[in-house]
Amino acid sequence: MQVLGIVGHSDSGKTTLVERLTQRLSGTGRVATVKHCTHAPDVDTDGKDTVRHRDAGAAETVALTDDGEWYATGQSRTLDETLDDLSPDYDYVLVEGYSDVNIPKVVLGDREAADPVIHRTPHGADADLDDILTAMEERDPYITLETLVADVKRDPDEVYSGAIATFTGRVRAQEGPEDPPTELLEFERYDEVAAEKMAALRRDLEARDGVYAVRLHHKTGVVDAGEDIVFVVILAGHRTEAFRAVEDGINRLKEEVPLFKKEVTVDEEFWAHER
Prior knowledge:
By secondary structure, the protein is α/β, with parallel strands linked by helices.
């Protein structure tokens, strides 16, 4: 899933650009949009059942119609949680607002915004969609474990599968009670070489008897303590083949794919390959 933020001051054409991008992208995939609100929007009517559910203490309320339309209200939901939920089912998410989060952004006008900024333009109505979409596609997609599991379930050989095995690697916050806490890891890679090695590893694993689909993903850039780094997902006929392929997959990924790791603790920072 590709994620793109649209930020700018009032009347800079944010919603106009979201509309233009949605119309363009909906021809090639499923599009979801997320809007940053400074106050709770009025999406329900006092006295209706859903309001009564919420007022009674429901943390989340979902209303469904017979033809599949729905809306939801809730509490304590973050942008990251929203993107995680959308990732398995959508090809694109356009986020209006949120100038300070770590997602690729188009900035309208002179608004300040945190990196990564992939495009700047005076107004959303005049923005060059081709330039924006080219820059967006050059960014790494937003991938979660659930994204990859949903993807292997769509494999044509899924009907022969009796097992899906997964591995998730995450940033360990501390090696032990006496060790300095880790704040973050930063990963860099040689893009073309890493992609070739990852593709070769996937082909090798999928060539095994009883293994039908393999998905591998390793994040780059900054990954904070407690966050996920790497995923391995195996669709197989039986658990034995699935577990064996997961173990071999993560071990070979760490050995064969050229990734460089910098660790930042409360005391120091260093590149792992220099130790």
